[in-house]
Every structure is written in C-alpha cells, then in structure tokens.
Amino acid sequence: MIRLFAALCAVAALTLQPARAQGLIRDAEIEYALAQVAQPILQQAGLPGSVRIYIIDNDRMNAFVGDARAIFIHSGLLLRLESADQLQAVIAHEAAHIANGHLTRRPAAARSAATAAKLGLILSAAAAAAGGGRAGLGVAAGTASAAQRSLFAHTRAEEASADQSSLRYMAAAGVNPQAAREVLELFRGQEMLSVGRQDPYAQTHPLTRDRIRAVEGFAAAVTPRTTDRSAVDYWYARATGKLSAFIRAPSWTLRQVGRSGDEVSVLRRAIAEHRKPDLNRALSAIDSLIAARPNDPYFHELRGQFLLEAGQAGAAVGSYRRAADLAPRSALIRAGLGRAMLAADQTGEALRVLESARASDPYDPNLLRDLATAHARSGQNGMASVATAERYAVLGRLADARIHAERASGILPRGSSGWLRAQDILAVAPRQ
C-alpha cells in the first residue's frame, strides 16, 4: 500500500494526490523494487543488507544520506531519471559517502545519531535536508538545526572521493559509468542560479567543472563488467511506474499508457482507474496481473488497497492475507492486513497482526495509529496510550508524545514492556 506521512499529520492510508504535503512515501512494492536496484551497488560498496532506500514526496531534485543506514531520494529526482543505470549512479554516490565515512567524521552527525538512537529513529536527521523553509519530514523527531543541516553539506573533497568510489562500484556491478555523467548533466547550471532557485542537491553536493570533467574522464576510460541487467531494469520500471501513477493525475497516466498491454502499463492503468475512481476497471486490470503472476505479493496487496479504500473491508482482508502469506517478512503488508481487519471489525486478529508488524517496523505512524485503535477497542487503554505516544514521537510532536507517555506510565504496571516503552519516550520528550 502506498502511503504518505504528511508533516505533523496523522492520517489514514492514503493514495497520493497531485497537491501533496512533503513527507515520506512508504510502499512495500516500491521499497522492495528499490532494494533490488540498489543491491548490486551496495554489494560492491561493502554495504549489502545494511542500507535502505526511502522516497521523499518532494518534486525538487535531491538525494542525500540520512545516516549510515538510510539513503533518501526525492520523488522529483526519481521521476526525472531515465534509466535504472542513472538511479544506480545516484545510489552509488550516496553509498560512497557512507562507505567513505563522510558522516561519522563529523561531531554534529554523531550527536544527531545518538539522539535518534534513543528511539531507533534512523530517519530523525532527515528533516535537516528536506529542503529550505518547507516543512520537514513527518517522521522527523527533531528540529532542523544549523548543526544538522551541515551534516548534509558535503565538501568538494568529499564529493571527489565519493565520485571516484561510486564509479568503481558502478563498473564492478556492470553499470555503465556514463550514467553518472548523465545524472550530473541534470544539475549542470544549478550553481549559477540564486540559492532560492537551486535544487537542494546543488547546495549539498558542490558541482564544479573539475568534478564533472573528472567523472567524464573516468566514464570514458572504463568498460563496465558484463552482467544481466534484466531484473534491475524490471524492478526500476515497476517502482517508477507505480510512483508516477500515484503521484500524477489519472487522466495523464491513462493517456500515457494508452492501450499498452505490457505489465507496467497495466499496473499504471489499474492505479489510475482506482484513483478516478472506477473500482471495476481497477480490479479488472489488477486481476489480469495476478493471473499472470499469481505469487506476486505486491499485486495482491494493491488489490487489497483498492478494495479497502472502496469500502469493501471484508474482501480486502482476503487479498491482504494472501499478500502477507507470500511476503511474510514485509511489515508494511502486515500493517495493511491489520488495517483491513480493523475496518472489518476483526479486532482481536488485527491486534495480533499489528503487533507483529510493529516488531519489524516500529516507526510507522499509520501502523501505530491503527495499533492504538486496536488496543483501545480491546480495552487496553494503557497500551493504546503507549502506541499513541510513539506515533507522536515519530511525527516529531514530542510535547503530545509526552502527554500520552505520562498517561501510559500511570496505567501500566511498573517494569512491564509497555511501561518501559513509555519511559523511552519520556527520556527524549521535553517537559513543557
């Protein structure tokens, strides 16, 4: 289920709309697809399995590292890239900043990471680079201080080092290094603009002529290793196709795909029909994809989203359950299943499923909202307050988080797991 965490706003599972508040886009299929695209690069960087790729809902072009475990890419940049190679070039450059230790050398980065670690919020530092005076990420736990902003402003020496490393990663992974030059071309001329008109990438990644010439020279001199690119290209197309269909107007998407019958076009058509909304046509399209790939969990999950948002919660549970069976390790899919169960008044089972999802991804605001609802319906008011406190903490509303954590502390047995979770909130939420 594709969802948007808008800044300081607790909302139900959302499809994306053309006018959107800046936030973090979470979607099981897109995150899996990006992991498949990133894996060859991260393997060469010595970071396999330790770094996740997140998408920020922002139409400006930017990419940055949140900490040693997270790379953030603006949706505006992702949708302007033209190939999987170009996306891998972006990922390779950001991975090089991690592998080369450009974050851990800075005291400001260390202080930010220590604060985030108290709640496990690997995303907390991201607000500092979310872009100018616009609202920070809904998942941010702190303010965008000058020290945090400096975390993302790389020096020219760091940029040169990251370029050299990233180009080696690309060549070793079978990615054409020319893609790095193509990405830099997207930003050429940015430094000639006033700061207010520059895309954030130009402010945090200095673009000098010497840097561009060095990348061009390396790309021209290196022949990448020959590899099978079909899987990477496939998952790139699915990620960008789905993201585009949820962000752009349904009428635009339908004009673009026309009568095309390839898989990604049908996926985009299904999403566009859902957003019109036309449930019958949306289900017809997604069912054709399921018929071709019956064991693809993400098609079943999307079918569940269509049904749930059309008010057919009982039928949605079946689709989500099938998706969860096919992808048992996906916390986002289990969260969707729990949400559908709540809507279908299956509170007891919903609570078990949501608790399981929280154990894997405890910083999902929508999941925490649903978990609080399930606890409240079950008469577990103390645990409902804990989940609500955690949700507010993840959204950066620390004063509200403290209120609910104090309420939970007064209800739950001292030393219990819920009580201890409330103490974690109180340790970082300031008194008013």
From TrEMBL:
SUPFAM superfamilies: TPR-like. GO terms for cellular component: membrane. CDD domains: M48C_Oma1-like. Its cofactor is Zn(2+). Residues 34-217 form the Peptidase M48 domain. Residues 1-21 form the signal peptide. Binds 1 zinc ion per subunit. The keyword Zinc applies. Coiled coil: none annotated. The keyword Signal applies. Keywords: Hydrolase, Metal-binding, Metalloprotease, Protease, Signal, Zinc. GO terms for biological process: proteolysis involved in protein catabolic process. One of its GO terms (molecular function) is metal ion binding. It comes from the Bacteria. Belongs to the peptidase M48 family. This is Putative Zn-dependent protease, contains TPR repeats.
